[in-house]
Amino acid sequence: MKVDLFNPDPPPKGEWILRLLPWLLGLLIVGGIAFGIYRFWDPIVAVFNRGRTQLAALTELIPAAPDPLEPELVATFTPTATATPDIVSTPTPTATATATFTPSATPTATATPTATPVPIPDAGTRLVWTIDDAALRYVPAGEFIFGSDPNDPGVVDNEMPQYTLFLDAFWIDETEVTLAQYAKCVQVAQCTEPANLTGPLGIEYYGLEEFEDHPVINVTWEQANAYCTWAGRRLPTEQEWEKAARGENGQLYPWGDGAAISEVANFRLFKEGTSAVGSYERNVSPYGATDMAGNVAEWTSSYYRTHYRNLLEELTATPDPSTMYNGGVHVIRNGAWNDNDETRMRGAYRYAAPNQAYFSSTVGFRCARTP
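-> C-alpha coordinates emitted (371 positions)
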Protein backbone atom coordinates (compact mmCIF):
# COMPACT_ATOMS: atom_id res chain seq x y z
CA MET A 1 0.00 0.00 0.00
CA LYS A 2 1.37 3.49 -0.90
CA VAL A 3 1.65 6.19 1.77
CA ASP A 4 1.00 9.92 0.86
CA LEU A 5 3.67 11.95 2.63
CA PHE A 6 1.61 15.13 2.45
CA ASN A 7 -1.54 13.60 3.59
CA PRO A 8 -1.16 10.28 5.34
CA ASP A 9 -4.81 9.74 5.07
CA PRO A 10 -5.79 9.20 1.47
CA PRO A 11 -8.41 11.71 0.37
CA PRO A 12 -11.69 10.63 -0.88
CA LYS A 13 -11.80 9.87 -4.53
CA GLY A 14 -11.83 13.03 -6.67
CA GLU A 15 -10.92 15.29 -3.85
CA TRP A 16 -7.22 15.27 -4.72
CA ILE A 17 -7.93 17.27 -7.83
CA LEU A 18 -9.34 20.11 -5.72
CA ARG A 19 -6.26 20.06 -3.53
CA LEU A 20 -3.96 20.40 -6.51
CA LEU A 21 -5.79 23.47 -7.98
CA PRO A 22 -4.07 26.10 -5.79
CA TRP A 23 -0.68 24.72 -6.74
CA LEU A 24 -1.59 24.71 -10.36
CA LEU A 25 -2.83 28.33 -10.16
CA GLY A 26 0.39 29.37 -8.41
CA LEU A 27 2.48 27.73 -11.11
CA LEU A 28 0.45 29.52 -13.78
CA ILE A 29 0.95 32.92 -12.08
CA VAL A 30 4.67 32.40 -11.59
CA GLY A 31 4.99 31.22 -15.14
CA GLY A 32 3.08 34.23 -16.41
CA ILE A 33 5.29 36.61 -14.45
CA ALA A 34 8.42 34.90 -15.71
CA PHE A 35 7.15 35.04 -19.26
CA GLY A 36 6.27 38.78 -18.87
CA ILE A 37 9.74 39.55 -17.51
CA TYR A 38 11.33 37.63 -20.33
CA ARG A 39 9.12 39.25 -22.88
CA PHE A 40 9.46 42.89 -21.64
CA TRP A 41 13.02 42.82 -20.14
CA ASP A 42 14.74 45.03 -22.73
CA PRO A 43 12.15 47.88 -22.57
CA ILE A 44 12.32 47.85 -18.73
CA VAL A 45 16.13 48.06 -18.78
CA ALA A 46 16.01 50.95 -21.29
CA VAL A 47 13.54 52.91 -19.11
CA PHE A 48 15.70 52.30 -16.01
CA ASN A 49 18.87 53.46 -17.74
CA ARG A 50 17.18 56.62 -19.02
CA GLY A 51 15.91 57.48 -15.53
CA ARG A 52 19.35 56.95 -14.03
CA THR A 53 20.89 59.30 -16.63
CA GLN A 54 18.36 62.04 -15.84
CA LEU A 55 18.93 61.62 -12.11
CA ALA A 56 22.71 62.03 -12.63
CA ALA A 57 22.12 65.24 -14.61
CA LEU A 58 19.94 66.67 -11.82
CA THR A 59 22.58 65.77 -9.27
CA GLU A 60 25.23 67.78 -11.15
CA LEU A 61 23.02 70.89 -11.05
CA ILE A 62 22.76 70.80 -7.25
CA PRO A 63 26.01 71.91 -5.53
CA ALA A 64 27.41 69.25 -3.36
CA ALA A 65 27.59 69.90 0.38
CA PRO A 66 31.13 70.61 1.51
CA ASP A 67 33.00 67.85 3.12
CA PRO A 68 33.17 68.77 6.83
CA LEU A 69 36.57 67.10 7.06
CA GLU A 70 38.11 69.15 4.25
CA PRO A 71 38.45 73.04 4.42
CA GLU A 72 36.75 75.08 1.78
CA LEU A 73 38.88 77.18 -0.65
CA VAL A 74 37.88 80.83 -0.14
CA ALA A 75 39.49 83.70 -2.10
CA THR A 76 39.46 86.98 -0.16
CA PHE A 77 40.46 90.03 -2.24
CA THR A 78 40.82 93.45 -0.69
CA PRO A 79 42.24 96.14 -3.03
CA THR A 80 44.91 98.51 -1.81
CA ALA A 81 46.58 101.43 -3.49
CA THR A 82 50.15 100.12 -3.28
CA ALA A 83 50.32 96.70 -1.59
CA THR A 84 50.91 93.57 -3.74
CA PRO A 85 49.17 90.45 -2.30
CA ASP A 86 51.22 87.33 -1.56
CA ILE A 87 50.06 83.81 -2.39
CA VAL A 88 50.43 81.74 0.78
CA SER A 89 50.12 77.96 0.59
CA THR A 90 48.00 76.75 3.52
CA PRO A 91 48.24 73.02 4.40
CA THR A 92 45.01 71.04 4.78
CA PRO A 93 44.27 67.71 6.50
CA THR A 94 44.65 65.98 3.11
CA ALA A 95 47.84 65.37 1.22
CA THR A 96 46.97 68.12 -1.28
CA ALA A 97 47.70 71.73 -0.26
CA THR A 98 44.90 74.28 -0.64
CA ALA A 99 45.90 77.76 -1.88
CA THR A 100 44.49 80.71 0.08
CA PHE A 101 44.73 84.34 -1.17
CA THR A 102 45.89 86.60 1.68
CA PRO A 103 46.34 90.41 1.17
CA SER A 104 49.60 91.75 2.59
CA ALA A 105 48.20 95.02 3.93
CA THR A 106 44.97 96.30 5.39
CA PRO A 107 43.38 98.80 3.00
CA THR A 108 42.97 102.36 4.12
CA ALA A 109 40.66 104.97 2.71
CA THR A 110 42.40 107.59 0.56
CA ALA A 111 41.37 111.06 1.62
CA THR A 112 40.32 113.46 -1.11
CA PRO A 113 42.52 116.56 -0.86
CA THR A 114 40.60 119.73 -0.10
CA ALA A 115 41.76 123.30 -0.31
CA THR A 116 42.66 124.68 3.10
CA PRO A 117 41.48 128.27 3.36
CA VAL A 118 44.29 130.69 4.13
CA PRO A 119 43.27 133.03 6.94
CA ILE A 120 43.21 136.69 5.93
CA PRO A 121 45.33 138.85 8.28
CA ASP A 122 43.77 141.72 10.14
CA ALA A 123 44.60 145.29 9.12
CA GLY A 124 48.01 146.23 10.49
CA THR A 125 49.14 142.65 11.14
CA ARG A 126 52.91 142.63 11.62
CA LEU A 127 55.20 140.25 9.74
CA VAL A 128 59.00 139.95 10.02
CA TRP A 129 60.69 139.32 6.67
CA THR A 130 63.71 137.09 7.25
CA ILE A 131 65.85 138.13 4.25
CA ASP A 132 66.58 141.56 5.67
CA ASP A 133 64.79 141.37 9.05
CA ALA A 134 62.32 144.02 7.94
CA ALA A 135 58.95 144.35 9.68
CA LEU A 136 55.97 144.51 7.31
CA ARG A 137 52.41 145.71 7.95
CA TYR A 138 49.31 144.32 6.26
CA VAL A 139 46.99 146.63 4.31
CA PRO A 140 43.74 144.81 3.42
CA ALA A 141 41.95 145.05 0.10
CA GLY A 142 39.28 147.70 -0.23
CA GLU A 143 38.37 151.20 -1.27
CA PHE A 144 40.09 154.36 -0.05
CA ILE A 145 40.12 158.08 -0.78
CA PHE A 146 43.00 159.00 -3.08
CA GLY A 147 44.11 162.56 -3.80
CA SER A 148 43.07 165.85 -2.27
CA ASP A 149 39.91 167.86 -1.96
CA PRO A 150 40.18 171.48 -3.19
CA ASN A 151 39.47 172.66 0.37
CA ASP A 152 42.30 170.65 1.98
CA PRO A 153 45.04 172.85 3.50
CA GLY A 154 48.11 173.16 1.34
CA VAL A 155 46.48 171.36 -1.59
CA VAL A 156 48.48 171.30 -4.86
CA ASP A 157 47.07 170.91 -8.36
CA ASN A 158 48.96 167.65 -8.97
CA GLU A 159 46.96 166.02 -6.10
CA MET A 160 43.57 166.51 -7.79
CA PRO A 161 40.91 165.54 -8.54
CA GLN A 162 40.11 163.23 -5.67
CA TYR A 163 38.98 159.64 -6.32
CA THR A 164 37.66 156.64 -4.45
CA LEU A 165 39.88 153.79 -5.62
CA PHE A 166 39.93 150.07 -4.91
CA LEU A 167 43.25 148.37 -4.18
CA ASP A 168 44.05 144.71 -3.65
CA ALA A 169 45.68 143.75 -0.36
CA PHE A 170 49.42 144.31 0.08
CA TRP A 171 52.15 144.43 2.70
CA ILE A 172 54.27 147.53 3.26
CA ASP A 173 57.46 148.02 5.27
CA GLU A 174 56.84 149.32 8.75
CA THR A 175 59.88 151.60 8.48
CA GLU A 176 62.09 153.08 5.82
CA VAL A 177 64.95 150.78 4.77
CA THR A 178 67.85 151.42 7.13
CA LEU A 179 71.56 151.76 6.44
CA ALA A 180 72.21 148.42 8.16
CA GLN A 181 69.67 146.64 5.96
CA TYR A 182 70.98 148.23 2.78
CA ALA A 183 74.55 147.28 3.72
CA LYS A 184 73.51 143.57 3.76
CA CYS A 185 72.48 143.86 0.12
CA VAL A 186 75.79 145.54 -0.74
CA GLN A 187 77.73 142.78 1.05
CA VAL A 188 76.18 140.10 -1.16
CA ALA A 189 76.84 142.19 -4.28
CA GLN A 190 73.16 142.65 -5.09
CA CYS A 191 73.27 146.37 -4.43
CA THR A 192 75.81 149.13 -4.99
CA GLU A 193 76.89 151.64 -2.38
CA PRO A 194 74.92 154.90 -2.18
CA ALA A 195 75.96 157.51 -4.71
CA ASN A 196 77.14 159.79 -1.88
CA LEU A 197 78.51 158.33 1.36
CA THR A 198 78.16 161.51 3.40
CA GLY A 199 74.93 162.33 5.14
CA PRO A 200 72.90 165.46 5.83
CA LEU A 201 74.86 168.67 6.24
CA GLY A 202 78.02 166.91 5.04
CA ILE A 203 78.22 164.61 8.06
CA GLU A 204 80.04 161.28 7.55
CA TYR A 205 77.18 158.83 7.40
CA TYR A 206 77.46 155.53 5.53
CA GLY A 207 79.08 152.61 7.35
CA LEU A 208 79.03 154.17 10.82
CA GLU A 209 77.41 152.11 13.56
CA GLU A 210 75.68 155.11 15.13
CA PHE A 211 73.63 155.61 11.94
CA GLU A 212 72.78 151.96 11.22
CA ASP A 213 69.14 152.42 12.28
CA HIS A 214 68.71 155.62 10.22
CA PRO A 215 67.12 155.48 6.77
CA VAL A 216 69.48 154.90 3.86
CA ILE A 217 69.74 158.02 1.66
CA ASN A 218 71.52 159.14 -1.49
CA VAL A 219 70.21 156.17 -3.51
CA THR A 220 68.79 156.43 -7.02
CA TRP A 221 65.50 154.88 -8.07
CA GLU A 222 67.42 152.02 -9.69
CA GLN A 223 69.31 151.33 -6.46
CA ALA A 224 66.11 151.38 -4.42
CA ASN A 225 64.43 149.03 -6.89
CA ALA A 226 67.43 146.66 -6.84
CA TYR A 227 67.28 146.42 -3.05
CA CYS A 228 63.56 145.60 -2.96
CA THR A 229 64.05 142.98 -5.65
CA TRP A 230 66.89 141.36 -3.68
CA ALA A 231 64.73 141.36 -0.54
CA GLY A 232 61.89 139.56 -2.34
CA ARG A 233 59.67 142.61 -2.41
CA ARG A 234 59.12 145.64 -4.67
CA LEU A 235 58.69 149.39 -4.50
CA PRO A 236 55.11 150.43 -3.68
CA THR A 237 52.94 152.25 -6.19
CA GLU A 238 52.05 155.78 -5.18
CA GLN A 239 48.44 154.63 -4.65
CA GLU A 240 49.64 151.94 -2.22
CA TRP A 241 51.92 154.41 -0.49
CA GLU A 242 49.09 156.91 0.02
CA LYS A 243 46.62 154.33 1.34
CA ALA A 244 49.22 152.99 3.78
CA ALA A 245 49.85 156.57 5.01
CA ARG A 246 46.26 157.92 5.15
CA GLY A 247 44.03 154.88 5.65
CA GLU A 248 40.65 154.43 3.98
CA ASN A 249 39.09 157.78 4.87
CA GLY A 250 41.74 160.11 3.46
CA GLN A 251 42.93 161.70 6.71
CA LEU A 252 45.46 164.49 6.18
CA TYR A 253 48.37 162.98 8.10
CA PRO A 254 49.32 159.46 9.18
CA TRP A 255 48.22 160.22 12.76
CA GLY A 256 44.97 161.95 11.76
CA ASP A 257 44.02 165.52 10.89
CA GLY A 258 45.93 167.28 13.67
CA ALA A 259 48.70 169.67 12.65
CA ALA A 260 52.27 168.52 12.14
CA ILE A 261 54.51 169.65 14.98
CA SER A 262 58.00 168.76 16.12
CA GLU A 263 56.68 166.24 18.64
CA VAL A 264 55.15 164.03 15.95
CA ALA A 265 57.54 164.19 12.98
CA ASN A 266 61.10 165.04 11.99
CA PHE A 267 60.96 168.13 9.79
CA ARG A 268 62.02 171.81 9.82
CA LEU A 269 65.59 170.76 10.65
CA PHE A 270 64.53 169.83 14.17
CA LYS A 271 67.11 167.04 14.15
CA GLU A 272 69.48 168.67 11.64
CA GLY A 273 69.33 165.47 9.65
CA THR A 274 67.69 162.07 9.70
CA SER A 275 66.48 160.34 12.85
CA ALA A 276 66.43 156.65 13.71
CA VAL A 277 63.42 154.99 12.06
CA GLY A 278 60.34 154.73 14.27
CA SER A 279 61.54 157.38 16.71
CA TYR A 280 58.19 159.21 16.86
CA GLU A 281 55.50 157.24 18.68
CA ARG A 282 52.63 159.30 17.30
CA ASN A 283 53.92 159.22 13.72
CA VAL A 284 52.16 155.95 12.95
CA SER A 285 49.68 155.35 10.13
CA PRO A 286 46.33 153.50 10.53
CA TYR A 287 48.13 150.29 9.50
CA GLY A 288 51.17 150.66 11.76
CA ALA A 289 53.67 152.13 9.27
CA THR A 290 55.98 154.75 10.81
CA ASP A 291 57.62 157.93 9.50
CA MET A 292 55.26 158.35 6.55
CA ALA A 293 55.50 162.05 7.37
CA GLY A 294 58.95 163.60 7.71
CA ASN A 295 62.39 162.07 8.18
CA VAL A 296 63.01 161.26 4.48
CA ALA A 297 60.93 161.38 1.30
CA GLU A 298 60.45 158.03 -0.43
CA TRP A 299 60.67 156.54 -3.92
CA THR A 300 57.65 154.79 -5.47
CA SER A 301 57.31 152.61 -8.55
CA SER A 302 54.85 154.98 -10.27
CA TYR A 303 55.66 157.36 -13.11
CA TYR A 304 54.87 160.96 -12.37
CA ARG A 305 51.74 162.60 -13.85
CA THR A 306 51.08 166.29 -13.43
CA HIS A 307 47.44 165.70 -12.42
CA TYR A 308 44.86 162.95 -11.85
CA ARG A 309 42.29 164.02 -14.44
CA ASN A 310 42.73 160.86 -16.52
CA LEU A 311 43.85 158.69 -13.63
CA LEU A 312 41.47 155.75 -14.12
CA GLU A 313 42.39 155.35 -17.78
CA GLU A 314 46.09 155.75 -17.05
CA LEU A 315 46.06 153.17 -14.27
CA THR A 316 44.74 150.51 -16.64
CA ALA A 317 47.04 151.41 -19.56
CA THR A 318 50.59 150.23 -20.14
CA PRO A 319 52.76 153.27 -19.36
CA ASP A 320 54.97 154.66 -22.11
CA PRO A 321 57.67 156.64 -20.27
CA SER A 322 58.74 158.45 -23.42
CA THR A 323 55.37 160.21 -23.58
CA MET A 324 55.27 161.08 -19.88
CA TYR A 325 56.46 164.01 -17.85
CA ASN A 326 60.15 164.79 -18.34
CA GLY A 327 60.63 161.59 -20.36
CA GLY A 328 59.38 159.35 -17.62
CA VAL A 329 60.50 160.02 -14.05
CA HIS A 330 59.18 158.45 -10.88
CA VAL A 331 57.05 159.87 -8.10
CA ILE A 332 58.57 160.77 -4.75
CA ARG A 333 56.26 160.85 -1.73
CA ASN A 334 56.41 162.59 1.66
CA GLY A 335 58.25 165.60 3.01
CA ALA A 336 61.68 165.27 4.63
CA TRP A 337 63.74 166.42 7.61
CA ASN A 338 64.66 169.71 5.88
CA ASP A 339 61.12 170.77 4.82
CA ASN A 340 59.84 173.89 6.58
CA ASP A 341 56.26 173.62 5.30
CA GLU A 342 54.12 171.40 7.47
CA THR A 343 51.66 170.82 4.60
CA ARG A 344 54.37 168.74 2.94
CA MET A 345 53.85 166.23 5.75
CA ARG A 346 50.39 165.44 4.33
CA GLY A 347 49.87 161.92 2.98
CA ALA A 348 48.79 163.31 -0.41
CA TYR A 349 51.95 165.36 -0.97
CA ARG A 350 53.95 164.30 -4.03
CA TYR A 351 56.56 165.56 -6.48
CA ALA A 352 58.63 164.35 -9.43
CA ALA A 353 62.25 163.34 -9.43
CA PRO A 354 64.24 165.75 -11.66
CA ASN A 355 65.67 162.79 -13.61
CA GLN A 356 66.20 159.04 -13.35
CA ALA A 357 69.70 159.41 -11.93
CA TYR A 358 68.50 161.66 -9.11
CA PHE A 359 69.62 161.03 -5.52
CA SER A 360 69.47 163.19 -2.42
CA SER A 361 70.22 163.20 1.29
CA THR A 362 66.49 163.79 1.76
CA VAL A 363 65.25 160.75 -0.20
CA GLY A 364 65.11 157.11 0.90
CA PHE A 365 62.55 154.36 0.32
CA ARG A 366 60.55 151.47 1.76
CA CYS A 367 59.38 148.27 0.05
CA ALA A 368 56.02 146.59 -0.44
CA ARG A 369 54.91 143.07 -1.25
CA THR A 370 51.88 141.41 -2.81
CA PRO A 371 50.47 138.61 -0.58
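The first helix runs from residue 15 to 61.
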